[in-house]
Amino acid sequence: MLICNGVSINTISEIANTLAETFAKTSSCDNYTPTFQALKRREERVKLNFSSSNEEGYNSPLTLLELRVALHRSGNTAAGPDGLHYIMLRHLSESSILSLLLLFNRIWETQVFPTQWCHAHVLPFPKPERQIQTTINNFTKEQSSFVFSTEETVSVVFSRNRGVFPNPKLFIGRSLIKVVKEFKFLGLIFDQSLRFHRHLKDLKIRSAKALNILKILDPVHHQGLRLCLGAFRTSPVESLYAEAYEPPLDLRRKYLCLNHFMKIQSMKTNTAYSYLFNFSLYDFNSHRSSLTYSQPFHFRIRDLINDLNLNIGRIALCKISEVPPWKVIYPKFDFTLSCYSKACTPESTYRTLYLEHRELFSDYEPIFTDGSKSESHVGSAVVSLSTVITDALPISASIYTAELHALRIAIEHISLSRGKKFIIYTALQSIVSLHSSSHPILVDITYALANHLKKKDIRFCWIPGHAGITGNELADTAARSATGSSERFPIPHSDLKACFKQKLQSVWQSNWDQQTENKLHNVMPVLAQTVPSSSNRREQVIWTRLRLRHTRLTHRHLLFGEPPPYCEIFGPQERQTVPPAERVQTRSMTRRGPQASSSELTLPVPLAIRGTKRRAMLKPVGGSSPKRPS
């Protein structure tokens, strides 16, 4: 409930409208003084007096590539007065994008902005070596349009002198500004000596609270899995992980730590790089016991890499493109063959379409690229009319990196060739994102296209892999047999994510193999994603509880403090686990013997389970009369 001007507002829409009206009124230009509003209108009517040579590269008209890159890198911020989001602009049609580009170029050339674009909030900052009181007086003038709160304004004297010095007397109008010893600004606590002891102490307290939150995430995670699966409250957490195929949070945290560590390793400009890779610190703290000392991040990552037996190799450094946006060459892409579904199109049709394409671009020299990845080999290959170039990559490299490396080899081959027209046939559909990705190899390709291949006509054409096209088959064979020293090749840190997942999956499987007493382990010895046998929620919950062997019938005594039940047919120690639905008939005959009728086995799941309950008469251990389950 919200109270505004003595009126209670209860509905969500009215509360939102009231807040919006209040914010709009607070930020409105009507809050300015009449003198400043007149000055503002007068200054806005003055045109910008700016002239420069149009021969400069940055004065050239905006290109379609620059607009697409700007929209691709824009965030999902709130809409402005026009009500348009960036995500809406990114999904405009081709004609609408061209119209938007025409508008921006008109503004760029005429130097006249739309009226609504002239409204902005400007924050002036004082320059050093100026009189503080003079600066305050300038802020409080009517022309600045700022209103300062005298109660919330404070001043701090920054000095490391140990002597006693008087506090300055600063005024806002006629009000004296209060002098304090420390002040929190933008999350930092500034003290008089700028030693930040108070800030570090506060940071330690907040970090301890964050760590306490991490300690209670596991029970919350377990509760979420129980709700999703419909599992009984007594089900072991290891069974919940296996049934839902969700790894424990401990493995998830290790995965995130490894990714973060490799990302920092690829960025030497990161402030944590010098600390994480200063190996001289390892021996300095080696005498500290792990029982009384929490190891730093680089210690834990080092031990984790050794435990997982990871062969990291060389990590490619992140690169920033040196090509200005107005000099980026937008490659020509041809996706004619992608209009046909590979599942429904025979290879003969693809070969015919390829021959037609070659007839259309017969004056272009064809170059085929391909990448290959198997369990023990990663390679790239380039095949032209007279040359076959191959190169081997580290086993941890992804197929995407192998395909990009083949494109880079092709670009290098073209730069050394005397020809002028080339067409590169590749099975990599993401070549359209050459201009918007930060992949190190893509940055090299963009740089080569902009600086070394200006006078050459290069086109990219997508072709399906393994479709019987001769050049592509030769490139695929060459990539599979590529040899060379793969250790010298640096790979992006993102390629290691698949390796980390595989190693941690092996750790999870190893831990699951040790759960020999777990009832679900007999049914699911290998961790894998399971497909629900029914779309009905109630049936899924029933099957899950039976697979986990934790139901109200078998484990309610743990919740109510009752004696454990006793089965007259199988006894208390007999292991019974209901198998998946597709094997229920064969297993049911084995488990339940000749007493189970064939008609009962073909009943729906809830009815079959009721039949099981009727035949399994349970009674308390040591009791004489059976107790009917509720």
UniProtKB/TrEMBL annotation:
GO molecular function per UniProt: nucleic acid binding; RNA-directed DNA polymerase activity; RNA-DNA hybrid ribonuclease activity
Pfam families per UniProt: RNase_H
Region: Disordered, residue numbers: 577-630
Domain RNase H type-1 stretches: 361-484
SUPFAM superfamilies for this protein: Ribonuclease H-like (SSF53098)
Gene3D superfamilies: Ribonuclease H-like superfamily/Ribonuclease H
Keywords from the UniProt entry: Nucleotidyltransferase, RNA-directed DNA polymerase, Transferase
Annotated InterPro entries: RNaseH-like_sf (IPR012337), RNaseH_domain (IPR002156), RNaseH_sf (IPR036397)
Keyword Transcription attributed: no
Protein name per the record: Putative RNA-directed DNA polymerase from transposon X-element
